[in-house]
């Protein structure tokens, strides 16, 4: 409900992920409670979700419905999270704003005259507007960090290849960049980012994507106040 209100105001959601309710019922029956049990998570548009498109803001990808969840979505679900919406990004995602010809312009919920930043601008706008408490964005040259800054949030671009990039719209079919693009969390506080990273860096991810070094989250490093 909150997400719907926020997107009516600032146009940040591109799609609602069907099957949320089914997943919640499935979770309730599980004995093992994941680290993100019951937490609704918003997902940047280009990250594959089964049964949905991953346009990256480009018309040419509108006809391609994804057959499988990307690794990060599978891992989020295995940890009890509930991916519930996909959020807007600029065309090709190489932009510090957040608009494209399919879904239009996303506004900054703190000031409608301003941009929420990009390219994870839909995430920034939705979380800052109160429609999500945890989101997954992506960052090559500031695409998590800029919208986090513009919208007054916390965001983390993890070290290259720390989290699986497998099966995201632009990981394999649009361009190759000299800097490693990374998926990462966005939230209102650092503790939420740390919890999300701890949840993602699990055996399930290392099993699903053997190219990711199997290094778990180091709680001691975080508590010392060093970078994650």
TrEMBL record:
Q: Gene name on record?
A: Vdhap
GO biological process terms held by the UniProt record = fatty acid catabolic process
Instruction: Fetch the SUPFAM superfamilies from UniProt.
Output: Amidase signature (AS) enzymes (SSF75304)
Q: Mind listing the GO molecular function terms for this protein?
A: amidase activity; fatty acid amide hydrolase activity
PANTHER family attached here? Answer: FATTY ACID AMIDE HYDROLASE (PTHR45847), FATTY ACID AMIDE HYDROLASE-RELATED (PTHR45847:SF8)
The alphabetical list of record keywords is: Hydrolase
Chain ranges of the Amidase domain: 6-214
Give the protein's recorded name.
Answer: VDHAP protein
The entry sums up its family as follows: Belongs to the amidase family.
Instruction: State one Pfam family annotation.
Output: Amidase
């Amino acid at each position: 409900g909150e997400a719907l209100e926020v997107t009516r105001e600032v146009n940040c959601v591109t799609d609602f992920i069907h099957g949320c309710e089914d997943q919640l019922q499935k979770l309730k029956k599980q004995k093992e409670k994941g680290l993100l049990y019951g937490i609704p998570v918003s997902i940047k548009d280009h990250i594959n979700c089964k049964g949905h498109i991953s346009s990256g803001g480009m018309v040419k990808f509108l006809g391609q419905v994804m057959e499988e969840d990307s690794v990060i979505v599978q891992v989020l679900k295995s940890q009890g999270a509930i991916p519930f919406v996909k959020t807007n990004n600029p065309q090709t995602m190489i932009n510090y704003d957040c608009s494209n010809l399919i879904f239009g312009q996303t506004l900054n919920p703190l000031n409608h005259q301003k941009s929420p930043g990009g390219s994870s601008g839909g995430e920034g706008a939705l979380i800052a507007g109160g429609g999500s408490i945890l989101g997954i964005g992506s960052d090559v040259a500031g695409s998590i960090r800029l919208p986090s800054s513009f919208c007054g949030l916390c965001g983390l671009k993890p070290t290259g290849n720390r989290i699986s990039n497998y099966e995201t719209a632009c990981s394999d079919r649009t361009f190759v960049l000299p800097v490693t693009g990374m998926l990462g969390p966005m939230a209102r506080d650092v503790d939420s980012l740390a919890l999300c990273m701890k949840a993602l860096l699990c055996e399930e991810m290392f099993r699903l994507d053997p190219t990711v070094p199997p290094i778990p989250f180091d709680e001691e490093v975080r508590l010392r106040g060093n970078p994650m």
